[in-house]
Design brief:
Number of helices: 1
Structural class: mainly alpha
Largest sheet: none
Strand content: under 5%
Radius of gyration: 20 Å
Order of helices and strands: H
Helix content: 40-55%
C-alpha cells in the first residue's frame, strides 16, 4: 500500500467538500439577492 499523503496525492474528499461549500455559498448569494447578472450578448438585429 502507498501512503497517499506522503506520495503527494491530495485527499479527494477535501476537494469534493470544498466544491460543495463553494456551490452552497454561491446558491445562498443568489437566493439572498434575488437576481443573477448574466453576460449574454444580444445581436443588434434581435432586439
Amino acid at each position: 500500500m502507498v501512503n497517499m499523503i506522503k506520495s503527494g496525492i491530495i485527499d479527494p474528499l477535501l476537494v469534493t467538500k470544498s466544491a460543495l461549500q463553494n456551490a452552497a455559498s454561491v446558491a445562498t448569494t443568489i437566493l439572498s439577492t434575488d437576481c443573477v447578472i448574466n453576460n449574454l450578448r444580444i445581436d443588434e438585429g434581435n432586439r
